[in-house]
Amino acid sequence: MFDTKVAVLVQEDLAVWQKLNVTAFLASGIAGAAPEAMGEPYVDAAGRSYARLLGQPILVFAADAGQLLQAWRSGIARGLTQAVYVRAMFSTGHDAANRAAFLAEPTDAPDLVGVALRGPKKDVDRATKGARLHP
Model's pTM, two decimal places? Predict the structure, then answer.
């Protein structure tokens, strides 16, 4: 039904609140980068309007550090849309500080705790190979 796929990989040994926080940030990054993937606003029976949601499923995977780097590198090689979250971002309090923390990371191996990917199904499948769906 969809030509594209969205996958979020989250480091499996994070605290639950961290996993949820990382997943929410990464999903918002993909939504912001792909406005064409957004569905229509929701409206309830009383006529109240609600925000649009991404119009396709998001698969959430548990991953270790090696799988996160592999998915990130594969995403770069395949030209996939990516959103990233590094460990240092847990100690920041706003967007500018998050971007500064990411900028300070090594360019060949950032300390990733989460990666989101969007692109052609086969490319996302290859990038997430070996990761398992989050339990």
Answer: 0.94
